[in-house]
Amino acid sequence: MLSFNHLSNPYSVSRNSVYAKNGMVATSQPLAAQAGLDILKKGGNAIDAAIATAAALTVVEPTSNGIGGDAFALVWTKGILHGLNASGPSPMSISIDAVKELGHSEIPAHGWIPVTVPGAPAAWAELSKRFGKLPFHELLKPAITYAEKGFPVSPTLSRYWRFAYEKFKNTLTNPVFQYWFKTFAPKGRAPQVGEIWASVDHAKTLQSIAETNGESFYRGELAEKISTFSKETGGFLKEEDLTTYQPEWVEPISVNYRGYDVWEIPPNGQGIVALQALNILKGYEFHSKDSVDTYHKQIEAIKLAFVDAAKYVTERERMNVTVEQLLDESYAEKRRALIGDEAMMPEAGEPSSSGTVYLATADSEGNMVSFIQSNYMGFGSGIVVPGTGIALQNRGHNFTLDWNHVNALEGGKRTYHTIIPGFLTKDNVAIGPFGVMGGFMQPQGHVQVIMNTIDFGLHPQAALDAPRWQWVKEKIVHVEDRFPHHIAQALARKGHNIQIQLEPNSFGRGQIIWRDNKTGVLIGASESRTDGTVTAW
Fold first, then answer.
1. pLDDT tens-digit map of 73-122
2. Which residues are known catalytic residues?
3. Of 195, 359, 424, 502, which sits 20 to 30 A from 260 (CA to CA)?
4. Four-CA torsion 533, 466, 458, 5, nearest 10 degrees
5. So what's the pLDDT on residue 319?
6. DSSP 376-424
7. Is residue 433 part of a domain?
8. Is the distance from CB of 422 to CB of 434 less than 8 angstroms?
9. Under 8 Å between Cβ of 177 and 391
């Protein structure tokens, strides 16, 4: 098992890991984390706490997620890891021809075209039904209170809200977007740091979801409001798309990395990218984290995994290769053999026949949850359903209009999805949940956090605080300004196009909770690049 009592934190920005015994919640907003902890103290379990935290995040971090988004979860309970895929499909009435007839050569980022069926409310209800202890309506009370009475806007949240407003005021000029501005910029601007922001409509919507166990969103008053607005303003989403939606319980997928099992949700999510990269990297021995060879091989492995995913990943049942083929040891060897001393232009192999919030919870009973939800690209589609506060996601933006591509747009199809929760076990015993949100940074963050933990012995906060890199495309690699400059220069000499970035949040925002199974002590960490925190007792 991982040992925590001797690890140092050479990369700490401001804090060390948090230790506790009875329960823990780690996420990107202190108010949401506190909501989850309050539920634990009321007798709820880790699943209840995750639901309460997720619902609160739709209020206190609307720049990254919302009621109209998707969710995925990995739940450890009674010695078994369960996976929940609550991503929604495209509307049945949409098609490539229909989009092209509207004058588009690719899927736009905003408006009704990229809107898919939201899965988050269904995820909350399903998790509560199967594993929760407290009544569902009890879990949404903190979120409802924050929405109704308001909360003070935090610094990182304010910055991203302002970015979105400045962008949207110049680009979202169609009248269909007016309700975004009425909801999220009622004073004609984004809220400032410390300013109280509330949304009574959001509170009413959460109350409706709470009272009906989520039914009103898919088969009730909220579903009617969503489908009516879609019909009136040229959308493809219809009431039957909502009525027929159900989240899916799935078997998590994994690879063994140096004796530890790293778990992800199977496609349509991109967790397989992290697993493929780790499968390639485990063929090497790494003696130092801050070495040119370590970073070079990490970057090259991620490239190979990403180009495979771009070619093959969509809904699992529609893929033309299997997950098992992509994670096969012999295929990893073939991909590993392509890595040389110079940066490569990656190409997909032939195996034989990405705005988001992340949270982690744990309780004294041994339950642990890795949960992620998102509207995508910040506020999502820019479509807000009037009178509800519901900002709809734009996950359909990841579809392609190429008929021959595996991820081609079709009605009723789930797209290649960026949000991924992670989980770590050893010898069928839980170590704990981890995640790094942020578009296509996510699997790259997973690889870096896992290697920081297992290969280099960093405790959770140090594993998160360590300077990050992100492969973007071709030979372009972004690195944080804290990244060692002498290593960046050496990587450039290997042919990598290294670009230093000043914005920390482009490198993701992570959370970790590990359990020391000898003592039962929980060790948690929260991203130093944002407003995150760990609450515990």
1. 999 999 999 999 999 999 999 999 999 999 999 999 999 999 999 999 99
2. 356
3. 359
4. -50
5. 87
6. STTTTTS-EETTTTEEBP-GGGG-B--TTSTTB--TT-PPPB----EEE
7. no
8. yes
9. no
Quote the tokens at residue 339.
């890595």
**Cβ 71 vs Cβ 425: under 8 Å:** no
Give Cα 244 distance to the centre of its chain: 25
Identify the residue whose tokens are 């400045």.
Answer: 166
Q: How many domains does the chain have?
A: 2
Q: What share of the chain is helix, strand, coil (3-state, %, to 5)?
A: 40, 20, 40
**Which contacts of 12-15 are long-range, i.e. CB under 8 A and separated by 24 or more positions?**
12/461, 12/462, 12/465, 12/528, 13/465, 13/528, 14/528, 15/461, 15/528
Candidates 227, 248, 236, 220; CA nearest to 122 is: 248
DSSP string for 489-502: HHHHHTT-EEEEE-
Please tell me whether residues 73 and 132 are part of one structural domain: yes
Residues 287, 376, single domain; the answer is: no
Average pLDDT, integer, range 245-253: 97
| DSSP-derived 3-state class of residue 183 | helix
State residue 15's pLDDT score. Answer: 66
CA nearest neighbour of 201 among 312, 302, 66, 69: 66
**pTM for this prediction:** 0.94
The rounded distance, in Å, linking the Cα atoms of 483 and 529 is: 14
Among 367, 398, 429, where does a domain finish?
398
Q: Same structural domain for residues 42 and 64?
A: yes
Contacts of 484 by beta carbon, 8 Å cutoff, 6+ apart = 290, 467
Block residue for tokens 């995508």: 376
Q: What's the first-to-final CA gap in the chain, in angstroms?
A: 23
Q: Are strands 368-374 and 70-77 parallel, antiparallel or unpaired?
A: antiparallel
Mark whether 75 and 157 lie in a shared domain: yes
Backbone angles phi, psi at 183, to 5 degrees: -85, -45
Domain of 457, CATH number, reads 1.10.246.130
C-alpha dist (Å) from residue 38 to 23, 24, 363: 10, 10, 12
Neighbours of 170 (CB within 10 A): 8
Instruction: State how far the Cα of 394 lies from the Cα of 115, in Å rounded to an integer.
Output: 5
Half-sphere exposure of residue 391: CA atoms within 13 angstroms, side-chain side: 28
Residue of 374, 375, 517, 504 whose CA lies nearest to 445: 504
Longest dimension (CA), the chain: 63
Dist. CA 324–CA 303, nearest whole Å: 19
Residue numbers of the domain that contains 351:
251-356+441-536
Identify the bridge partners of residue 500 per DSSP, sorted by sequence position. 479
- 71 in Cβ contact with 48 (< 8 Å): no
pLDDT, tens digit, 9 for 90 and up, residues 155-165:
989 999 999 99
CA distance 403 to 409: 8
Tokens of 502: 């000043």
Look at residue 339 and tell me if it is in a domain: yes
Which pLDDT does position 352 carry in this prediction?
47
Do the beta carbons of residue 415 and residue 399 sit within 8 Å? yes
